[in-house]
Amino acid sequence: MGPEVFDSRDIGQTEEFLSKAYAKMRIGSDVKNPRTQISRQVMGSVSIDRLNLEYAMSFDVNPLGKVCLCAVETGTIAQQVAGGPDELFGPGDTVLFAPHDLPYTGEIRRSRYDIIMFDPALLQQVAGTLPGRRAEPVRLVGHRPVSAAAGRHLRRTLAYLRDDVLAAPELAAEPLVVSTAGQLLAASVLTALPTNADAAAAPGSARPEALRRATAFIDDHADLPIGIDEIATAARVSARALQYAFRRHLGTTPLGYLRQARLARAHAELKTGDPTTTVTAVAARWGFFHPGRFAQLHRAAFGCSPGDTLRSAAELHHD
């Protein structure tokens, strides 16, 4: 399924479309017949829109209910969140456009830009998998990345999801790809943007039996879009304690162990030599949406490329 495309010079139609896609809003224009072009791609709770406005559009928007990021390509965007200070974003900026629970106003001035939105619950789910995160709910507390390098990494992540994942319908339809892509986006945001979390929190310990429950749950549910919360619930410990236990006893993280389990399942599927499948299809089924990265992981784990594994198995079964 391709992207949803909107192209209009009617300000009323544009306001209606934007209100449905984002939140109830009022907009205005500095010209007659203002042209608005939008290409919208959606995967699970993540949406990425490419917008091109050939005019200056004023806006007054209700709370979105979602984390909203903005990557500016051309033009400038001025905004004010809930009566706070004025912010001005320009070409090359990748920023938190608006918190999920606050209204905002501003003006988009003849700009081409991307809007990326996702469920704020993803931040809470992923925060438990990152070292040094506090137990209290994580909050984004600033608009701009903590460093230039963090901003570049966030831009690369957004471009990758937009151009390589969402642009490939066969990938975007895979449940594990949807789950993994959302986790990747949330982790990149938590790493790039300032939050209320500090790096000094030390998680508690988890007993080995909790670790056994966690690994058994992962092994039994590797084909499902599970995350840290589901694993911790099955292990009957907190996400922080589980994170610590995996690092201490296994030298990895819960999601790292999950990735290895899925890699092993993908390898087993390749070894069936099914002539109707491909390496890309197998990788996507098991949540690996970057074929090159999948090949690297497969070679490191099994000493051969996934393509060689599939071909060898096919030849063996043919003979």
Brief digest:
44% of the residues lie in helices and 22% in strands. With 319 residues, it is of the alpha+beta class.
Topology:
Layout (H helix, E strand, L loop, with lengths): L3 E5 L2 H11 L3 E5 L6 E8 L2 E8 L2 E6 L5 E15 L4 E4 L4 E5 L5 E15 L2 H7 L20 H18 L3 H4 L2 H18 L15 H14 L6 H8 L3 H12 L3 H17 L8 H7 L5 H12 L3 H13 L1
Antiparallel strand pairs: 1-3, 2-5, 3-4, 4-9, 5-9, 6-7, 6-8, 6-9
Helix pairs in contact: 2-5, 3-5, 6-7, 6-8, 6-9, 9-10
Tell me the domain tally. Answer: 3
- Low-confidence region ranges: 198-204
N/C terminus separation: 39 Å
> Helix- and strand-based class?
alpha+beta
Shape: globular
**Overall mean pLDDT score?**
86
Tell me the β content: 15-25%
Description of the molecule:
The chain folds into three domains: 4-118, Jelly Rolls (Sandwich), CATH 2.60.120; 122-258, no CATH class; 263-318, no CATH class. It has helices at residues 11-21, 121-127, 148-165, 169-172, 175-192, 208-221, 228-235, 239-250, 254-270, 279-285, 291-302, 306-318; strands at residues 4-8, 25-29, 36-43, 46-53, 56-61, 67-81, 86-89, 94-98, 104-118. The radius of gyration is 22 Å and the shape is globular. 44% of the residues lie in helices and 22% in strands. The two termini are 39 Å apart. It has 319 residues and is of the alpha+beta class. The longest helix has 18 residues, at 148-165. The model is unreliable at 198-204 (pLDDT under 50).
